[in-house]
């Protein structure tokens, strides 16, 4: 994936995380998982394990989105550095003066 593609993916991931619909959906899902976990009988080890896995999956999903955002920020920084390296000496002097 090119730095520009990583940058764009990071921007899109940030939009998802900032979305009210996403926030509501994730909080509702986590609340339902916790409620089902509380309602799960103590003897139901398999059910409790599946709910634990589901909770970890929800956290992992958020982690992946956060990773995409950070990767996009890093790519943005790389693009800026590369563009500064590629500019002419006269332009570099003018940028520093102004």
Structural class: mainly alpha
Shape annotation: rod-shaped
Number of separate strands: 0
**Secondary-structure element order, N to C:** HHHH
- Rounded mean pLDDT score: 90
Key words describing this protein structure:
98 residues; mainly alpha; 4 helices; rod-shaped
How would you describe this protein?
This protein is an all-alpha fold. It is 89% helix and 0% strand. The protein has four helices and no strands. The protein is rod-shaped, with a radius of gyration of 22 Å.
Write the layout of secondary structure elements.
Layout: H1 3-18, H2 20-39, H3 45-86, H4 89-97
Summarize the structure.
Helix content is 89%, strand content 0%. The chain is mainly alpha-helical and 98 residues long.
